[in-house]
Amino acid sequence: MGSVWRLLPLIMLTGVLPWSVIADEPIFPRARGERCVEPVGVMRRAHFEFLNHQGQQTVERGIRIGRHSLAGCVGCHAARDQNADWVPVSAPGQFCDSCHSYAAVRIDCFSCHRAVPEADRAMGN
Amino acid sequence: MAAGDTSTLPRRELLGRASALAGLVVSFAPGMRLIDLAAAKPDGEAASAEVRWGMLVDTTRCVSGCDACVNACATEHGLEMTDRPEIDAQWIRKVDLIDEDSGKEISLPVMCQHCEDAPCVAVCPTGASFRREDGIVLVNQHTCIGCRYCMMACPYKARSFIHINLTGQRTHSPRGKGTVESCTFCVHRVDRDREPACVEACTAAGHQALLFGDLSDNEGELAQRLGEVQTQQLRSDLGTNPGVHYHGL
């Protein structure tokens, strides 16, 4: 919070406390795809509803199309380490973990689901 | 589901052509058909009660000592064996039987029998153990609490419990500690018009002891074959009406 004092004149002028000053925003590796299947704001708020809905459709009814698959998320958001090995999206500092640690919400997906892409992506999930 | 004479055409393409043709013949208007086509469902459609997936195990072709189906299952679903065999997952196992009177020996695979009246579904307190519209019995591991009533109820000992934390699961086959699991008839393949991995492996091994298909499709290879040979369901006295039938028991 020390930087708040340095920015004090700016804050007094604008009346706005920059978000990044209040707390460090989660930082995570860039996604590989061109764009997300939904606008970022929608995803931030509703990603679990999408995942939950599509998961139910898949498990209970066998509907395997739809763009809200967990495998899809992992496919774009998993990063590689310096040895070019995949890093799980749930590993510290990675896509899922960075926000979930920040928000203190435990993720339970990856105790069962694969957290890195698989060569045979055609099967989907 | 066997390729037969049509092996030069991918099955999906063949079905696509066949259904397009049939659609021309019997349709009045878009979406209206006189006869429902006995084709596998497109990816985007829900599993339908028009279909009942089943299997015929021909024990006269099954070879003692061959475990191609078991290995294929393990590879397909990422079932890794540990140094504690008592906790290893068994979705499909090979059983050798000897008739003490005649000395006749038979070998057969036993997996989830995908019962119509499934005891595992009846006892599940959360509804996690369920039967899909098309007859495939599954565990929804999102709602499974790991109580294992289904394992006690199953007359075929077809289910396994995951005792340890797992890593390296396959994308299409999520599995995790504290839940029950069993043969899914490779539902991820079936939904995409492919055979279960065990069936594919048995055919590839040259035995052709496993035939997968739609029990409700009277014209289909499975139903035809069931009409030709004498078959039995395991523990048919229990009235569970399994989807898996055995020949030569």
Could you explain the architecture of this structure?
The complex is a heterodimer of chains A (125) and B (249). Helix content of chain A is 44%, strand content 3%. In chain A, a hairpin with a 5-residue loop joins β1 (79-80) and β2. The model of chain A is unreliable at 120-125 (pLDDT under 50). Chain A has one domain. In chain A, strands 1-2 form a two-stranded antiparallel ribbon. Chain A starts with a helix and ends in a 22-residue tail after the last helix. Chain A is mostly helical and 125 residues long. Chain B is of the alpha+beta class and 249 residues long. Chain B has two domains: 1-37, no CATH class; 49-247, Alpha-Beta Plaits (2-Layer Sandwich), CATH 3.30.70. Chain B contains seven helices and ten strands. Chain B has helices at residues 11-26, 68-77, 119-123, 149-153, 187-190, 197-204, 221-228; strands at 53-58, 92-98, 105-111, 129-131, 137-139, 160-161, 180-181, 210-214, 231-232, 244-247. Chain B has a four-stranded mixed beta sheet. In chain B, strands 2-3 form a two-stranded antiparallel sheet. In chain B, a hairpin with a 5-residue loop joins β4 and β5 (137-139). In chain B, α2 (68-77) packs across α6 (197-204). The model of chain B is unreliable at 1-7 and 21-38 (pLDDT under 50). The chains are: A mainly alpha (125), B alpha+beta (249). Chain A binds chain B through residues 55-57, 59-66, 71, 74, 111-114, 117-118, 120-121, 123-125, and chain B through 41, 43-47, 130, 132-134, 138, 140-142, 165-166, 168-172, 174-177, 179, 187-189, 191-192.
